[in-house]
Design goal:
Layout: H1 2-29, E1 50-56, H2 63-71, E2 78-84, H3 91-101, E3 105-109, H4 119-130, E4 135-139, E5 143-145, H5 149-160, E6 164-168, E7 170-171, H6 176-181, H7 184-192, H8 196-200, E8 213-217, H9 218-223, H10 236-246, E9 251-255, E10 260-262, H11 268-282, H12 287-301, H13 303-314, H14 317-338, H15 345-348, H16 351-371, E11 375-377, E12 380-382
Helix pairs in contact: 1-14, 11-16, 12-16, 13-14
């Protein structure tokens, strides 16, 4: 009997979760960036300079395509500044070749990281000191912009007086490790964060950001202290977004899937290490919150598949039917979210596997933090 009540309670929560996700998706439709009237600088009477700032460490496989996408922007009044953050691969040679082909491209050699600074944060800080633009677009090297991306971000920023525009690019996933874990980031956001409050509330708790695309008004960036104010942060995007709100400015979590795409990781090892360094910190280093997430997700998305399989062996059909309905409900929630990233629907059927992997990464992230060994990323260790 207790199992039946537990499964019915799970169904009730999943039904509420579905309603919340549908509401968030409806809100998100209104967060698409507007289109300028013309596909060039001509729509703007006084086109401001926009600095596109790209930190690059060991990005030989990405940097050329990233810069070429920026070069092809319809909005032309931009400067492109790339900082080679002491790369150990062919990144410097590729940048030198690209510099000869593009007059707007500046290439900086990153200085050694001072004590107390995170690598990417210090790279972005150096880039900001060289930027001359009225707007700053911090872009990851694995990001690929559509031709109208910069113009649309600028139009939204000026029309709506937004201090920071960020959002989740379309995630390109090709291996099963990527498909099972990477889309879970957007799944978690849409399942738990009321998107309307990201911009509609001044409370910094209601915030989300993606470091791959951060479009600031320069005055706002300077007012919050820039990257220098979060020197040691390993979740710099979230910390910057919180500071924007704390400074009294607005944050727009935009739908970027039509203007930006990226492939963050290419292997299981990269997926594991990339999420391991962030997950515990995304919960503010709070062990209770991380444990609550792991237990809650396991209850909602793992318990029912286990009961369903056990019922096949034991013949407890009532529990099995309720569990099967819960499984289908969970898959449906995941599928309507994955559709935004053109993830095949079949991947949603492996939601329990995704949850197990995410919980395993979360536990690993917690153990790394508590052991004092720190996190390793791109050849650097952070404590």
């Amino acid at each position: 009997m207790w199992l039946t009540f537990l499964l019915l309670g799970t169904m009730l929560v999943l039904g509420m979760q579905l309603a919340f996700v549908l509401w968030n998706l409806f809100v998100f439709r209104g967060h698409r960036l507007p289109h300028p009237r013309m596909h060039s600088d001509e729509w703007h009477t006084d086109p401001p300079l926009i600095s596109v700032l790209i930190p690059a460490r060991n990005e030989a496989r990405n940097i050329a395509a990233c810069i070429q996408a920026v070069q092809h922007q319809h909005y032309r009044n931009i400067e492109i500044i790339v900082l080679d953050d002491q790369s150990e691969d062919q990144t410097p040679a590729i940048l030198e070749q690209l510099k000869r082909e593009e007059s707007r491209l500046q290439v900086l050699s990153g200085r050694p990281r001072p004590r107390g600074w995170a690598g990417k944060v210090y790279a972005c800080h150096q880039l900001s000191k060289q930027a001359r633009g009225r707007y700053l677009l911090f872009l990851d090297a694995d990001a690929r912009l559509e031709n109208d991306a910069v113009a649309r971000a600028l139009l939204a920023a000026e029309q709506q007086q937004i201090g920071l525009i960020t959002g989740f690019p379309k995630q390109v996933t090709r291996t099963w490790a990527e498909r099972l874990v990477v889309p879970f980031m957007m799944f978690s956001i849409l399942c738990h964060l009321p998107l309307k409050l990201v911009r509609g509330s001044s409370d910094p708790k209601f915030v989300a950001a993606h470091g791959g695309f951060m479009f600031f008004h320069r005055d706002v960036y300077d007012h919050i202290g820039g990257h220098e104010a979060i020197a040691s942060s390993l979740v710099d995007d979230m910390d910057l977004a919180r500071r924007v709100k704390q400074g009294g400015h607005s944050v727009l979590l935009a739908d970027l899937t039509s203007i930006c795409s990226m492939r963050m990781y290419t292997s299981f090892h990269e997926v594991w290490m990339g999420y391991q360094k962030n997950m515990y910190l995304l919960f503010g280093g709070n062990s209770f919150l991380l444990a609550a997430m792991m237990i809650g997700y396991s209850w909602l998305y793992v318990l029912s598949p286990v009961v369903m399989l056990c019922s096949l062996a034991t013949g407890h059909w009532q529990a099995g039917i309720l569990a099967a309905l819960n499984v289908l409900l969970g898959i449906f929630i995941k599928a309507i979210i994955d559709r935004r990233n053109s993830i095949p629907w079949i991947v949603s059927c492996f939601l329990p596997v995704s949850v197990v992997l995410v919980c395993a990464i979360g536990l690993s992230s917690w153990l790394k933090a508590k052991s004092g060994k720190g996190y390793t990323w791109k050849g650097r260790v952070y404590h």
